[in-house]
Amino acid sequence: MRARDMTHLHELLKMGIKDIERETFNSALSMGEKVLLALGFHPHQARKRAKIFHQYDLEVIQKMHHLWDDRSAYVSSAKQAREELGRIFAEDQRNLQHGGADSAWVVK
Length: 108
Fold this sequence. Notes:
The protein has one domain (2-101): 3-Layer(aba) Sandwich (Rossmann fold). The chain has helices at residues 6-14, 25-38, 43-64, 71-97, and strands at residues 2-3, 21-22. By secondary structure, the chain is mainly alpha-helical. The chain has a two-stranded parallel sheet. The relative contact order is 0.11. The chain is globular, with a radius of gyration of 16 Å. The model is unreliable at 103-108 (pLDDT under 50). The protein contains four helices and two strands; from the N terminus they run βαβααα. α1 (6-14) links the parallel β1 (2-3) and β2 (21-22).
């Protein structure tokens, strides 16, 4: 089932639908990966980060779904998730600066 936006996504989840594709998520994820490549990230690094973000996003949606009807709790949880994502990005940046490159995955 295709979800138009987050509201529609949560409506579908409430109906018990499990196999849901968000209309713009995959294209946004792909564009993010392309931006990382344009910024000079190694192809494996860019792909890995896109996959990590995708998995994180799915986990956050599942954790927050039960809060959807409580707008205040949902917004508070969303802020916490955004802060956690910021910490994940910062840790990832530190790992890159300390030689955490995955360049061995490139086949030329």
